Amino acid sequence: MIYISSSCVKANKIKDSVLELARNGFRNIELSGGTKPYPDLVNDLLKLKDEYKLNYLCHNYFPPPKKPFVLNLASLNDDIYNMSLTHLISSIELSHKLGAKKFGFHAGFLINIPISQIGNSIKNQNLFNRTEAINRFKNGVSELINASNKFGVNLYIENNVLSRTNYENFNSIDPFLFTASETLNEILLEGVKPLIDFAHLKVSCNVLQLDLKKELNKLINKTDYIHLSDNNGLTDQNKEITTSSEIFDFIPPSDFKGKDITLEIYDSLDIIKESFTNVKNHIEK
């Protein structure tokens, strides 16, 4: 099933993003960050789901918290860790209410990222002790597994993106968890699968001088949930998927079958539709 991220349509309220996508014929929508909280959010989503026969997934920073913060389940700051854990449990519960069977969130960071720097160049700062951060992350994931079992939602951890700028800012040290296959096993617990973001992996492989095709081969059969967009290999740009996008050279149609795919393309609705068609045609070959 191919989903479209709500982040592709910018709006203050999630209902407006969803409505725009639904009116353009999209029935599978992944609810993600970029909107603001409001009292009728859940009721609005349920009404739209019923009216347009929608399928939802919730992702990472959704629903939007009342107080903005940078989600980080590996944080050694107790306040940030507890806010992250509370948010993620509420996201799993909301997934259940909306009928979603999967919930994916980002692997943690070895730093606390200021809100103003998320998604941009991050200033150098002291890193957490890696072992302590991984243990904290895994403790949090254990709590999430309990919640996901309670609500019947499958749990996924998404690979982070390491841009060249941030790699250089941290003196050629990776400040994030799970940016490539070799760092997956240190955070993965039984009952949890990776969410593979192709665009993130493309950038990280370029920066870390890893073979993208080999990395995909190691990861693709470990999951049934993929995020797709394209970029220049240097930074996450959320560009369209064209017929010549290298993802189609690296992953045969058979490896896409049975997987949920979310398009995260920040462009016009016409471009999003073209990308949807290109991915759909590849899968159906």
Name some characteristics of this structure:
285 residues; alpha/beta; TIM Barrel; globular
Characterize the structure shown.
The protein is of the alpha/beta class. It has one domain: Divalent-metal-dependent TIM barrel enzymes (TIM Barrel), CATH 3.20.20. The chain is 39% helix and 13% strand. The protein has 10 helices and 8 strands. It has helices at 14-23, 41-52, 78-97, 130-151, 164-169, 198-208, 212-219, 247-250, 253-256, 269-283, and strands spanning 2-5, 28-31, 55-59, 102-106, 154-158, 192-197, 225-228, 260-263. The protein has an 8-stranded parallel β-barrel with strand order 1-2-3-4-5-6-7-8, surrounded by 5 helices. The chain is globular, with a radius of gyration of 18 Å. The model has no long low-confidence stretch (mean pLDDT 96).
| End-to-end C-alpha gap | 15 Å
Annotated CATH architecture: Alpha-Beta Barrel
The tally of domains stands at 1
Tell the overall outline. Answer: globular
Series of H and E elements: EHEHEHEHEHEHHEHHEH
What can be said about this structure in brief?
Helix content is 39%, strand content 13%. It has 10 helices and 8 strands.
SSE diagram, text form:
Layout: E1 2-5, H1 14-23, E2 28-31, H2 41-52, E3 55-59, H3 78-97, E4 102-106, H4 130-151, E5 154-158, H5 164-169, E6 192-197, H6 198-208, H7 212-219, E7 225-228, H8 247-250, H9 253-256, E8 260-263, H10 269-283
Parallel strand pairs: 1-2, 1-8, 2-3, 3-4, 4-5, 5-6, 6-7, 7-8
